[in-house]
Write a structure and sequence with these properties.
Radius of gyration of chain B: 22 Å
Radius of gyration of chain A: 19 Å
Order of helices and strands of chain B: HHHHHHHEHHHEHHHH
Structural class of chain B: mainly alpha
Largest sheet of chain B: 2 strands, antiparallel
Helix content of chain A: 25-40%
Low-confidence stretches of chain B: 348-372
Low-confidence stretches of chain A: 1-21, 273-277
Number of domains of chain A: 1
Number of domains of chain B: 1
CATH class of chain A: Alpha Beta
Number of strands of chain B: 2
CATH topology of chain A: Rossmann fold
Number of helices of chain B: 14
Mean pLDDT of chain A: 85
Largest sheet of chain A: 6 strands, mixed
Oligomer: heterodimer
Number of helices of chain A: 10
Structural class of chain A: alpha/beta
């Protein structure tokens, strides 16, 4: 049973796309997005455009609305106002799995993998969602190419037949990224992929990210400034539910507003944390 | 590989025991009882699939068991009454014309098909409505239990249509054979055993397939599954419908074997009893569910003969003990013992380059070979 991805809409193979695609065509367009939770404005008029092939970092202090933004794009949270358009299709009112089927995949801050399934089965399930349910009734024979690719990329091929519950925290994050790759999405959303990782693991994740970004459109939510400096090019800074600054990493870092709200604030916060602890 | 052959050998051994040894050594009465236990085991198998694999704690399987049972019983009643006549209980209730609902059941083919398809369709409809609204966990359990309660009330209330509290009983002719005849009982027993074996293999195939892996994924992280591009409601609905069909088949076989179907067999208590049987046998293992179905109903019959009122207390006690001490039930315990034995014989070589730090353990995990 051969198992390439089949749908023509998602035939964009890693490794083949970027050269053919014009550099500045928008894949994701967000306009005037507002989200209100019980009177609290989590997002307050966000505009964001992400082009094909771009690696975009999304930063901002705690509560700036980064994860909320990801949640809206992926259908987990319903916006009160504004629009999200993916490749010309509005995402309004679509349920989560429908949005995945359009080609948007995500990972979570606290990685959720299926502990009872093997590493291979985790990735395999991610790879096969486009098949009809009846086709899933057959037993898996061999390893589909997309799955083998993903396992190789995240460096867990050696653990393929082990249950996911034996993985370390860092390996779980990689497994999530592997599952995401196996989905062959056109847009990848990574929510704090290096949170809680050791130095070595951060480095490996950074390399993985650089590698993935070569042939994918990626949005990364990140807290870690050091990681940002090393691996980011385009950065969007969110503050209090709105876009504060957008630009390349050097320009954003030099911007006094960013220093004030983000760096300044985070230093204050750290001081506050120190007091309260 | 060797594990696979071991499994096949075990299955063959059990099949031999059930198909050849049991009919040879048991007297017709005991064989009939065993056939009854095997009927419950079929329903338990369905619960193992829905609950053990899919995480749907269904406390209303009695409804589907009943739908299957009443389908067969309605055919048998009409057959006994003969064309144009009413079943005996309708005459006693003063019903003068055969109710519309009964008419198609004069055909045995329709009745047998209905015994499988009606429960499956009911579960599919119900499941899809419930699961789409993301009702799950305890809420689903309570809903399914309420369904069982409501079904019983309806059955009891419609005396003329359903036979009320007495249910449907007194069957005299089973496809041309006397149901009381020893030969008929033996054949019935074999049919039940073969159906159970076939359904077990079917369920096993389902669990091993990608769908089965997906079902486990839905059980352990329904919300995460959505972000893999699947609709968990569909996955759960399919599993629930298959489980209901199995309960329906169990009920359909139960009627000729035992000779009665009545509301007291499919209310809240019998439904819960089935779930307890699966918990005791081992819900994460299909074989465990089957074993539980047989063992618990054997214990029920045996114990009730001595202490009729004590059974419910014993049942409750067993349930609490299993949940507290052995969440994996008998099958989980057996697997753990086998794993421990295998480890002692052949210690696992350390894998270089990996750091297997187990994540937070959950109490519900049955298959942990390592002592905490």
């Amino acid at each position: 049973m051969n198992t390439r991805a089949h749908s023509p809409a998602t035939a964009e193979r890693p490794g083949s796309a970027p050269a053919a695609v014009p550099p500045a065509s928008p894949l994701l367009e967000i306009r005037g997005l507002e989200v209100v939770f019980n009177g609290f404005r989590a997002l307050n008029g966000v505009d964001l455009t992400v082009n094909r092939g771009e690696l975009r970092f999304l930063i901002g202090p705690n509560g700036a609305g980064k994860t909320t933004l990801i949640d809206v794009i992926t259908g987990l949270t319903r916006p009160s106002k504004g629009s999200v358009t993916f490749d010309g299709t509005s995402l309004a009112g679509r349920r989560e799995h429908r949005i995945v089927r359009l080609g948007i995949g995500r990972t979570f801050q606290t990685s959720v993998v299926f502990e009872e399934l093997t590493v291979l089965e985790n990735v395999d399930l991610a790879a096969t969602f486009r098949r009809p349910l009846a086709a899933l009734l057959r037993q898996r024979r061999g390893v589909p190419d997309a799955v083998a690719d993903a396992l190789e990329r995240i460096g867990l091929a050696g653990l393929a037949d082990r249950p996911a519950k034996v993985l370390s925290h860092g390996q779980r994050q990689w497994l999530e990224i592997g599952m995401l790759l196996a989905q062959r999405p056109r847009l990848l959303l990574l929510d704090e992929p290096v949170a809680g990782m050791s130095g070595d693991e951060r480095e490996r994740t950074g390399e993985l990210l650089t590698e993935i970004a070569k042939d994918h459109t990626v949005i990364v939510v990140e807290h870690d400034m050091e990681f940002l400096r090393r691996y980011a090019s385009q950065v969007t800074v969110l503050h209090e539910g709105a876009v504060l600054v957008e630009g390349d990493v050097a320009a954003v870092q030099a911007d006094p507003r960013v220093q004030e709200v983000y760096l300044g604030r985070s230093r204050n916060e750290r001081a506050k944390d120190g007091e309260s602890a | 590989m060797s594990a696979r052959w071991r499994g096949a050998a075990l299955f063959a051994a059990v099949a031999l025991l059930v198909l050849a040894v049991a009919p040879a050594v048991l007297d017709p009465f005991r064989l009939g009882l065993l056939a009854k236990y095997l009927c419950f085991a079929i329903a338990a198998l369905g619960i193992g699939l829905a609950w053990g694999q899919g995480g749907m704690l269904t406390l209303g399987q009695g409804v589907f068991f009943g739908l299957g049972g009443y389908s067969t019983a309605m055919y048998l009643k009409l057959h006994d009454a003969g064309p144009g006549n009413l079943p005996d209980f309708m005459v006693w209730s003063g019903v003068e014309e055969l109710p519309l609902l009964w008419r198609p059941f004069s055909s045995p083919v329709f009745a047998i098909a209905a015994a499988v398809l009606v429960p499956a369709a009911a579960a599919a409809l119900l499941g899809f409505l419930i699961f789409r609204q993301r009702v799950r966990g305890a809420y689903f359990a309570i809903l399914s239990q309420a369904l069982a309660a409501a079904f019983v009330i309806w059955l009891v209330g419609r005396q003329g249509l359903t036979g009320g509290t007495n249910g449907l009983t007194h069957f005299y002719d089973l496809f041309g054979h006397d149901p009381e005849d020893d030969g008929t009982k033996r054949v019935l027993y074999l049919v039940v055993a073969l159906v159970l074996g076939a359904l077990y293999l079917l369920a096993r195939q389902l669990v091993k397939s990608r769908f089965g892996r997906l079902l486990v994924a839905v059980r352990d992280g329904e919300d995460r599954v959505r972000f893999l591009g699947y609709d968990p409601a569909v996955v759960k609905t399919v599993a629930f419908a298959v489980s209901a069909a199995m309960a329906g088949i169990a009920g359909a076989l139960y009627v000729p074997v035992v000779g009665i179907i009545s509301p007291s067999l499919l209310g809240v208590v019998p439904s819960i009893e089935l779930v307890v049987a699966v918990a005791i046998g081992g819900r994460y293992s299909l074989a465990g569910a089957v074993l539980g179905g047989v063992l618990l109903n054997w214990a029920h019959t045996t114990f009730s003969e001595q202490y009729p009122s004590g059974w419910v207390y014993l049942l409750g006690l067993m349930f609490v003990l299993v949940i507290m001490l052995a969440p994996g039930g008998v099958a989980g315990g057996a697997r753990r013992a086998a794993d421990a034995l295998a480890h002692r014989r052949r210690p696992e070589p350390g894998r270089p380059g990996t750091t297997p730090t187990p994540g937070p353990r959950r109490a519900s995990e049955p298959e942990e070979a390592v002592a905490p």
